[in-house]
Amino acid sequence: MTEQGTPILAEVYRQHRRALFGLAQSVIGCRHLAEDAVQEAFARLCQSRALGRDPVAYVFASVRNAAISQLRRRNTQDRTHQSLFNGHSGGVNTDDPSQSLADRNGLDELAAAVDRLDGDDKQVIVLKVYANLTFDQIGKILELPLKTVASRYRRILQRLAIELRGRV
Amino acid sequence: MNEELEKRLSRLQMHAPSEELDQRIAELLREASQPTAVCRPGSTVQQNWKLLCATAVGFLVIGFGLGLSAAGLWPEHGGKFQTVGVEQKLSDAERFENRQISGLHLEVQEPSTVSGMPANERQAKAPDDFRERTGEPLSQQKTTILGERWFEGPNGRLARGYLTATRQRIWKYDEQSKSLRAHELTIPRLVVSSPPGI
Questions:
Q1: pTM of the model
Q2: Do A134 and A84 meet the contact criterion of CB atoms below 8 Å apart?
Q3: Looking at CA atoms only, how far is residue B50 from chain A in angstroms?
Q4: Helix (H) / strand (E) containing A28
Q5: pLDDT at residue A37 is higher than 90
Q6: Which residues of chain A lie closer than 8 angstroms to B3, CB-CB?
C-alpha cells in the first residue's frame, strides 16, 4: 500500500465497517471468522499497491474474497449461521418509542427471513441496502452483470414480500 | 411494495464489528502508513533469484571440479598420509581388517608411565607453590574421515571402510626447559565396518 492509499483505505473502513463485516458474515455465517476475514483482507490491501478505480468496490471485493477463502479452509459440515442483525430476536432497533409491538414483531420476522436467505442473496441485500452501493458496484464485487444483479435484487425482495405477506 | 420493504430492511441494524477488530485494522493501517525509507528485505522474487544464482554457481564449481578430476588434473592423495617421518601407501589387500596400519611407530606412552605422573596419593598432593594450569589439556586429538572405500571379501561379502587420520597432540613436561612441550602425531587408520543389511 502506498502512503497515499492508506487514508482512502481508512476512510472506506470508517464509512463501511458494519457493511464490510456484514458481507463477510453473510459469506461465512460466523461472526468470529468474519472478523478474521476482514482483518485478512485489510492486511492484504495494506500490502498491495493500488485500490483500483473504485476503492469502495475494491475493498468490498477483497473482503468477500477473503471470506470465501476462510470458508474453503473450514470444514463445510461445521458451518454456523449466526444472525446478521442485532438483538435477541433479529435485531430490532428498540430505541425508537414510536414502534408499535406489531411493527417490532414484523421487523423481527423480516430479519429472520433475511437470515434464512442463501449466502449469495444475503450478500446482495447487504451490499444494496446496508452499503448503499450501486448495482454496477455490486456487479463488480460479485462478478456478475449489472442486469443480473438488478433482477436478482428484485426477485429477493419479491420473495421476502411473499414470505412476510400478511405481516408486512 | 418493494420500496416499503426496502425501508423496513434499512431499519434493521446489522451487527457491528468488535472494537478489537477496529483496533487491529487501525494498527494495520498505521503500519502501512509508516514511511518506507528503511531498508526492507528483498521481495520473494528477488530472494528466489538469489537462491537460483547461488545454486547455479555451486553446480558450476562442482562440475568444474569433476571435470578436472576426470581429466586427471585434480590432486589426489590416493591413500598416502603424511606422518611423523613415515609415509605409507595402503594397498587394497591390507584394508579388509579393522586394524592400525602396520609399520607406524607411535610415540604415545601408556598413562601409567607418563613422566611426572605421581606414583601414590602422597605425591599426588600438589605442593603449595605449585599452580595448576587450567584450561590446557594434556592431550588433544582430532579424527578426520578422509574417504570411503568398499571392499569385497573372499566369500563375496561387501564391507565399507573409512580412511581416517587422527591428529594427536600431547604435552609433555620437558626437564631441560622446565616447561610443557607439545608433541604432534598423525595416525592414519583404515576402519572397516559392515553396514547393516549387507
A1: 0.52
A2: no
A3: 23
A4: helix A5-28
A5: yes
A6: none
